Amino acid sequence: MKFLRFLLKFLVFVIVLGVLLVGIAFVPAVQTMVAQHFLDRQPGLKGTVGSVWVGFGKVDITDLHVEAGGAIVTMPAVTARLPLITAFREHRFLLKSLIAQGWTLDVTHLGDKPDKAPLSGGPRLASASSTGPRSGTSASPTQQAASAFNAVLRRWALPFEGSADGVELEGDIVVVAHSGMETSHVHVILSGGGVAAGREGAFNLDASGESAELPLGTVGAHGQLLFTLDSQRILTRVAIQAVLAAKSGFLPSNLALSAEVAAPTTHEETLSLNLTRGGRHLATLVAHSAEGAPRLTGTWKIDLQDSDLAAFAQDRPLLAFAVAGEGPFDADAALKRVHLRGRLKGNASRLAVLAAPLERLGTVTMESQFDLARTAESIRFDQLNLSLAAAAATTSVRFLQPFELDPRTGISTATDPDADWIEVSMRQLPLAWISSLIPGIAVAGDPASGDFIVRYVRGGFALRTKTPLTAANVSVQSGGRTLGRGVDLSLPLIADTTPDGWHVQSTPFTISARSQRLVTLNLKASRGVDASQPIALSGSWTADLDGLASQPIMGEIPWIRGRTASGDFTANRGTWTSVEASLAITGHEAGHSITGTARADVDDDGTISLSMPLKIAFGPKVSDIAIEGTWTSNDSGTRPDFKLTGKDVILEHARMLVGPFSGAVEIHARAGVRDPIPFWGVRPRRVSFAFDQLRTSIQDYDHVTGSLEIDRGSLHLVNGHAGLPNHSGTTVQGSISFDAAAPFPYSMKATVSATEIDSAAWVGKPAKGEEPVLEGHFTVESTLTGYGINLDDLISRRQEEFRLTSTNGILRLLKTSVAESIPQVSTPVSDTLGTAGSLVGTLLGVKRDNTGAGKNPVSKTAEAILDFTNQIGELGYDRMTLTAIRGLDRTLHLMDIVITTPDEHLSGSGLITYAADRPLPEQPLSLEFQFSARGRVADLLVKGGLPVSAKDKSGFASLTPLARFGGTLEHVDASPWQALLAKAVTAQPATGKK
Q1: Mean pLDDT of 806-816
Q2: 769, 830, 881, 943: which one has the fewest Cβ atoms less than 10 Å from its Cβ?
């Protein structure tokens, strides 16, 4: 009985103890302690738990923090439903539901260095989910992905039988876009189940996150997450299938992503990524990892089109392109070294997006073959070949040896610095590419070809020409004008860029035509390593002007005529530009040359200043002319302002310069063809001139000044002035206007005012021993008008009207001798000689004495004529006026000629017939006058038997026949006038006393 009572008491004790133990087991503090002890015993895992409560069929966990393999999980609360008795008795965990919200999975430390202290403890784990900048030792995104890939399936096996259903998870995954950048959060919602041994579990997936590097805005993914366990409860497959969409920002439509990690055998894992759009595979990656081999191997493939990226371009135009490629790759497990090989092929069109002239190329095809290895420090290229083709044009780039590229600095290093590195071959390149590089210039001709070699030197590159870049049958246009045509170009290049700066040299660039070298240019350009330093330019050039004569540009610059031209230049191009140059032009004839220097400065506001002193020598004719100019920019464009100055200048020399700098070389007149624009061009500018002395073939002028004001529709000569030595000057004002719609586009009007012009300017120099036919000073008022369809037509149609006035001069036009026309008689008449005067006797060669013997008798008529010629041989006129009009035939029509003295008047008209290449005093002259007189001269007309009119109310009687003259102004032919007087002398016989 005692034993029974003891046994009963022991049983009761055991039962009570069991009840107590069971009760204690359900105490949350105990359960929490047990759970923490369980976590601490797991190898490779560290974690903490706030509290655990396990009830019948339910588990609640709070503040769970777990770190494994660099991944950190933080769960504020987890609720699970599962049969506990089955779990403990049969070791089968049949999870009927699992609910967790607000959790965080931090993968930013996946792939961290092994010696990095692991995060543990509540506070450390909590800090891992912050959004602050990551440490510089954080793994890159590719390393994070590699670590996750290696950890997904390795050693993941359920330690017990079980299943999972009713899973509802919502939380954030913390990732970093790039080492050193701020973290990003991906919000994830998972719901589903079906996970069990030998089965595939499926979960609905909704995820969204911000793109840190691309303008995608908020990107969302909707699809499924699949887990597969084999019969041994080992995780053999994890897959995701999702459709991507941009909840804000831009993302192509119909974009889908599928990824799968699988272990088809116990010795290998396979990762496959596939990005598709509308059923087309955009990018595919397949990677394999063998057990025990710390490497990944696999293949890659891409197939992209412009439509795949159109969403990112928004409203901006995009190239039309298609590119495809594939190849193998291998990498270490952490993707710290990736070896990539393969080929890329593609094509592109709509190249006007890059530059309008490139649209002419049509579709460009591209092919590339490469073999590269990427590490954290560099990219090593063991092979890289690239070729481009557009129609017949091809460009190939071939790397002749391996090289490394530092992605942080962009510096490349060749394996063998002493060997050739890159070979560039260009074939059939369209010259339209040059047009796209030089604004305002259009270049056409046969395609260009050339070969270049690049070497690595002193931390930089050196380029040299293997075969010069050449092009044949080239034409160049600018502003609709052809500058050159049918020329051949050859461009050799030497260039290098080093840490000290860069240098480019062309030695030489040549322009040829029909195997004749026209222009040779040696050019050097360099700049130091500091981008703020100026670019230094220098060079020299030579030109064969005879060879260039057939080129249109020489027609545009008519003043350059000669045999050869040469020069050199230096320039600095920075925030401001300075250019210094020399020029030497040699003519065909000995002593014909143009030499000079030039300096131009360009300020930071775009203003250009030019100074160019020139010496022009045509044999003994030498002119020193200085050209100064400025180009100023404003809202309406650039306006040049030039000034030509000189002390002693030849007119033909000045004309050579005024033409080009006035812009009067922009187009050329063709017979019968209207100018589409004025011959002076369309750019506004001003050209002024000031010469101390201007020498012409006819006359020298002092203080020649003026300016040409030029705009699109008119050319004005303002304040033109020229003076004759020791006389007052001449003032010229005029304009030429242009109206393209008028019947005659050009119209011209100019006025000339001159005072104190010496008559010698017109009558020239008389023969030795003779006096000029006219002495006096004139005031000239002239008007120049004209119209035409082009410049030549305007010049040929011009009309000139001159109005000349002179006072107090001397006219010797009527001077003549009729002594030889007087007949000799035997009866002396002393009284006749007495009245004729000693001067008449002198003219007749007779001597007067007191005896009356030996005398030559003349009639009274002859005596009157002789006396008349003596009176009018040299007329001191009070006033002379005339009007001269020059018409289309260039003949001067002299009208309204009026010459007055107190007792003589002459009125008449005449012609000076144009004779090419002869100055005015030597051109043919024709004059006729009406002579009138009063007083004694009128009485002599009557006594001389000349036909005269009745006297007018002023007492003037007019000689009825007109007085006519010929010859030239320099040598007047008075024979018609002499014949008129001689006829009167011989009209009746001489009589006298016997």
Answers
A1: 92
A2: 769
Residues 35-76 pLDDT 10s: 777 777 777 778 888 888 777 678 888 888 888 767 888 989
For residue 830, the number of C-alpha atoms closer than 13 Å in the C-beta half-sphere is 8
Q: At what angle do helices 860-872 and 830-844 cross, to 10 degrees?
A: 40
Who has greater pLDDT, 937 or 140? Answer: 937
> Is 992 a residue whose pLDDT tops 50?
no
Which two tokens mark 76?
Answer: 């504020």
User: Where are the alpha helices (H) located in 401-445, listed in sequence order?
Assistant: 432-437
> Which among 139, 153, 157, 143 is positioned nearest to 291, based on CA atoms?
153
pLDDT for the residue 156? 61
Cα gap 588→580, rounded to integer Å: 27
Torsion of CA 919, 920, 926, 928, to 10 degrees: -160
- In this model, does residue 866 exceed pLDDT 80? yes
Report which of 610, 620, 550 is spatially closest to residue 583, judged by C-alpha positions: 610
Beta bridge partners of 528: 501
Distance of alpha carbon 430 from alpha carbon 769, whole angstroms: 77
pLDDT at 817 over 60: yes
Assign residue 235 a region: left if phi > 0, alpha if psi is -120 to 50, beta otherwise?
Answer: beta
d(CA 567, CA 570): 11
List the one residue out of 224, 218, 215, 170 whose CA is nearest residue 193. Answer: 224
Exposed/middle/buried for residue 338 (C-beta within 10 Å: 0-12, 13-18, 19+): middle
CA distance 27 to 38: 17
Q: What is the rounded distance in angstroms from the CA atom of residue 11 to the CA atom of residue 692? A: 143
Distances (CA, A) of 688 to 181, 361, 629, 655, 717: 66, 48, 10, 13, 9
Percent of the chain with pLDDT over 90: 23
To the nearest 10°, the Cα dihedral for 254, 107, 338, 268? -90
**Assigned token pair, 555:** 């027609």
* Residue 184 CB coordination number (10 Å): 18
Neighbours of 287 (CB within 10 A): 22
Determine contact, residues 370/383, Cβ cutoff 8 Å: yes
Domain boundaries defined on the chain? 46-251, 819-985
Residue type, 90: E
Look up tokens 């001709």; give the residue: 445
pLDDT at 213: 53
Query: What DSSP string runs through 674-710?
Result: --SS-TT-SS-EEEEEEEEEEE-SS-EEEEEEEEEEE
Question: Among 279-293, 575-589, 732-746, 909-923, which stretch is predicted with the lowest mean pLDDT?
Answer: 279-293
User: How far is residue 379's CA from residue 629's CA, in Å, rounded to a whole number?
Assistant: 55
Q: Which amino acid is at 849?
A: D
- pLDDT exceeds cutoff 90 at 570: yes
DSSP-derived letter for residue 607 is -
- Alpha-carbon distances of 265 from 234, 268, 946, 955, rounded to whole Å: 11, 6, 147, 147
Residue 693 pairs in a beta bridge with 648, 702
Tokens for 558, please give them. 């008519």
In 91-157, alpha helices (H) = 122-127, 141-152
| Residue 749 per-residue DSSP state | E
Question: Is the preceding peptide bond at 508 cis, omega within 30 degrees of 0?
Answer: yes
- DSSP code, position 25: H
Q: Take residue 477 and report the two structure tokens written for it.
A: 């246009």
Compute the average pLDDT of residues 949-977.
91
Q: What is the pLDDT of residue 254?
A: 76
Whole-angstrom distance, CA of residue 583 vs CA of residue 597: 6
371-399 confidence digits (pLDDT tens): 999 887 888 888 888 888 877 788 898 98
**Residues 221-253 pLDDT 10s:** 888 888 787 777 777 788 888 887 766 666 777
pLDDT exceeds 60 at position 887 = yes
Phi, psi of 410 (to 5 degrees): 75, 10
DSSP bridge partners of 242: 223, 257
